[in-house]
Amino acid sequence: MISESAIHDLRRDIRGSVMGPGDETYDQVRRVWNGMIDRRPAVIVRALGARDVMTAVNFARGHGLAVSVRGGGHGIAGNAVCDDGLMLDLSLMRGIRVYPNRNRVRAEPGVTWGEFDRETQTFGLATTGGLVSTTGISGFTLGGGIGWLVRKHGLALDSLMSADVVTADGELLMASSSENPDLFWGVRGGGGNFGVVTSLEYQLHAVGPIVLGGMIVHRAEDAPALLRFHREFVKDAPNELTTLAVCLTAPPSPSLPSEIHGKKVVAIALCYAGAVEEGEALLGPLRKFGKPVADLVRPMTYQALQSMFDESAPAGIMNYWKSSYVDGLSDSLLDTILEHATQITSPLSAIHIHQLGGASKMPVDLSTSYGHRDAPFVVNIVSTWTDSRENQKHVEWTRGVSSALDKFAIGGYVNFMGEEGEEGVKAAYGEEKFKRLTALKNKYDPANMFRFNQNIKPSV
Ligand SMILES: Cc1cc2nc3c(=O)[nH]c(=O)nc-3n(C[C@H](O)[C@H](O)[C@H](O)COP(=O)(O)OP(=O)(O)OC[C@H]3O[C@@H](n4cnc5c(N)ncnc54)[C@H](O)[C@@H]3O)c2cc1C
Hints:
- By secondary structure, the protein is of the alpha+beta class.
- The protein is built from 14 helices and 19 strands.
- The protein folds into three domains: 4-89, 2-Layer Sandwich (Uridine Diphospho-n-acetylenolpyruvylglucosamine Reductase, domain 2); 96-207 and 438-444, Uridine Diphospho-n-acetylenolpyruvylglucosamine Reductase, domain 3 (2-Layer Sandwich), CATH 3.30.465.10; 210-416, Vanillyl-alcohol Oxidase, Chain A, domain 3, CATH 3.40.462.
- The strands form four sheets. Strands 12, 13, 14, 15, 16, 17, 18 and 19 form an eight-stranded antiparallel beta sheet that branches. A five-stranded antiparallel beta sheet has the order 5-6-10-8-9. A four-stranded mixed beta sheet has the order 1-2-4-3, with helices on one face.
- Strand 5 and strand 6 (104-107) form a beta hairpin.
- The protein is globular and about 70 Å long.
- The mean pLDDT is 97.
């Protein structure tokens, strides 16, 4: 229990706002993207700046509360909100300052990719961002960051140049390759384990504004041949090309022929982030392969591509995801995916195969804590449905696919993971990095105040 007078004092010290279970907007603010999450923090602080974050962290420490951190609120595990602890909501911190002459941007942690792209694309600049524009930049970047530019410009965290971090002792530290480099290593992959990031500075790259993007859609019966062709097609593809193969149910979209609405299909979604004519020439064989039911690939603005999937990801409905990096797309893996895709339990669910490699690939990467740099693909089982009474059915399907994929799996991707426990987190980083992350946790958060995340437990 926190006394009324303590809350009163906290309110006085916070420039943003403070709320508890009795407050009018409490239920709205504790809500996150995944509708399965329903947690009740003891207190919520809506911060407006680093000073508010420092005050909130000091308050939490003084009252023995653990802290959950909300950036964009898209985390599947829902760790942005906690039961009984202090929820630090950063969603009102949305400042963005672009430095066009230096190809840099500084952004606050409540910014979403849609907002970020809007500002940076004004100058023909971008960095690797999420495939859905409402995703927050901070959770996304601190866990990795896979998007349409991943093969050309690396993960989002590869373009992170510095971050301001409020650590568990309430201090604000700058983390970069020259200042607190150990902390900088940790936050680039280790998520929110080491503190609260109040500002992120990125390197920007010349992108678009027009890129070649969209998707090619085939009937499910053509999927085995298409996915094999796609595997060979991307083998030596230039880094400008990034693809995402998706097994899904065709939505009733006017851009798709009505006879396939509601039918199982497979799509190759893609971005060619280079000269459009070069992309057109490169993509010829893929577009001509088989008998596509729709070819929606066309020159479009990078911002339009970045919101192409927005409608498929509404906030507030049920979600349960499982992911795994794989070291290639063997026939046996593809057949396993396709077999389970035919038994999908919700028309909103899908299985995604993200192509990685290119600039994100490093056989040995000691410079960031992100795991599995050498994996060429990550498979994400995206289970989505609207009726909470059906939870068990959809969760079981997801777990079934995941178990069937276990023999191909080399660890999960923290940004796509739900609650996977310590073993899941360890597998996501690999033994060596996990050991180093644990040592860093001992240094920066020995009491595990920041435990609502893909948690690296301190060993002290
Ligand atoms: C619809 C949808 C689409 C997605 N698309 C992609 C994609 O294309 N590529 C990809 O790689 N991932 C994608 N993701 C996964 C996404 O990267 C993660 O969900 C990520 O955590 C979202 O960040 P957020 O700030 O919105 O989420 P939050 O839920 O706010 O944050 C997630 C966790 O990150 C930590 N955190 C967030 N902000 C801070 C901070 N400022 N300081 C310290 N810790 C912090 C906290 O531990 C928090 O629990 C997608 C997720 C969704 C729901």
